[in-house]
Amino acid sequence: MARFFEDFAVGEKFVTRSRTITESDVVQFAALTGDFTYLHVDAVAAASTPFGQRIAHGALIYSYSIGLTTQLNLLEGTVIAFYGLDRLRSVKPTFFGDTIHVEKTVASLERKEKGGLIAYDTRVVNQHGDAVMVYSDKVLVRYRNGG
């Protein structure tokens, strides 16, 4: 159910469903973006890295975090705009076969002229409970009565 700015509270936490990262996901992302870096697509070369195996693109994990968050339907029909992204960090590798979900916590709420600005602290978490990516993001959301 879509929510308006007034429906959010600082400290409120949202958790998405999970998604398993497959080799097909990574290969298709490499083809789509043209990023065929060996860490992602060359099993033999990647075996000699500190990771010991291929890893998913950080940009792919970020993209999936957007999709998983969108599936919560929190802002369907009320979002005005994506406002920004800060401090994006891939803090651990995501391997083929890892299952991730997203945890978003409302960090702040700020009233603006055209809508309310919601800032989130976001963590992408694997099946072991480890954060693999962290970032802060903001969205501009409609007010319930337009102002």
Describe it:
By secondary structure, this protein is α+β, with helices and mostly antiparallel strands. It has one domain (9-141): Hotdog Thioesterase (Thiol Ester Dehydrase, Chain A). The chain has helices at residues 23-33, 38-41, 43-47, 58-70, and strands spanning 13-15, 19-20, 79-90, 99-111, 116-125, 131-141. A hairpin with a 5-residue loop joins strand 5 and strand 6 (131-141). The chain starts with 12 loop residues before the first strand and ends in a 6-residue tail after the last strand. The model has no long low-confidence stretch (mean pLDDT 96).
The run of helices and strands is: EEHHHHEEEE
**Distance from first to last alpha carbon:** 21 Å
| Strand residues, percent | 25-35%
Let me know the largest β-sheet.
6 strands, antiparallel
By DSSP (H or I, 4+ residues per run), the number of helices equals 4
Overall spatial form: elongated
